[in-house]
Amino acid sequence: MSTDPAVGGPLSAFQRLLTDEGQALLAKLRSYDPGRELAVATRLRRDHPAELVSAAIAQTRLRQRAAAKFGAEDAARMYFTPDGVEQATRASVAAYRAGRFAALGVRSLADLCCGNGGDAVALARAGIGVLAVDRSPLACAVTRANAGALGLSELIEVRCADVAEVDTAGFDAVFADPARRGGRGRIFDPEAYSPPLSWAVEAARRAPLAALKVAPGIPHEAVPEGAAAEWISDGGDVKEAVLWFGAASHGAPRVRATLLPGPRTLDSAGLPDPPSGPVGRYLYEPDGAVIRAHLVAEVAELVGGRLIDPTIAYVTSDEHRPTPYATAYEITGTLPFNVKRLKALLRERGVGTLTVKKRGSAVEPEELRRKVKPSGPHSATVFLTRAAGAPTMLLGHPLR
User: In what order do the strands lie in the sheet with 390-398?
Assistant: First the structure.
């Protein structure tokens, strides 16, 4: 039995996709409908080996999943592994970070734990020469294929190696994205990352400039000394946190929230927690990156507001001051938590489309919808939360 990983297994199957026959199969599957998989597979197996057909269909499914992160045009040309799709940086986030590297004067970078090469692609498109490193032969083959498919081979060198054995001296910067998923799913302990976060931090500190991608749930107390932490959201969804070292952290605020598209950046001003007070006419829901970065006080200052409760990240004020860092709502009803009263109020206002948001409440949105049975031509948003320590319902609508 051969021990060569290229003979049999996922790597061999992937390499066959790069042959003329594999490319022809992938082209035939461009309009693939997952609901017709059995019929499609049966038809294709008449002219192609079953293993190749299975690999092509699996790759097509991955491309369809990847379209949400990479866009339909790039995803249709790129290659992926299942873990690679899950862990890949969204293209808009990768492009923002690559732009920041380029603005800092970076022209060469070592991309450690490159996965499927999504970040390497963004960096190369920003004009940066990249050494993409991963210990997985399959990941390296996928990254190499992606560089070729997107016309970036001259800027992306791929090396299959343990990142701990790679000499990064001579590079302007280092970027590391340790694996945060294992055989049992997502890994929450930073020291269980592969490689461990402590190793990545030491590698970053040896570089003139470095960035480490970490999970957005990283505790603030776990941010290493001397690092600047940035939480990034895209379209309102928190995507990741990045720890910046070296030249990128000198003179920078220790904490920052960046919102995409934009980018719009909110830096820490070191403000104390804002006071709390009664619910006013307007409610502000800070962006998730702002909340993760603990910058709710900065938003409260921007809108001249206060917290509805010392423990809840909702800001309220008596005047409307638009800000990109929070969604504003006009509050048209405030009542103690009482499902019957809410149901009556919704019926009175003819609310049939109900958006339920919660913070500080154990009630599930779908459970509430079932109980109030909204019906009517109007829409509204209800917040299940606490105000001055008491379970509270706030009814309103977003302001554009």
Answer: 306-307, 315-317, 282-286, 326-336, 390-398, 378-387, 351-358
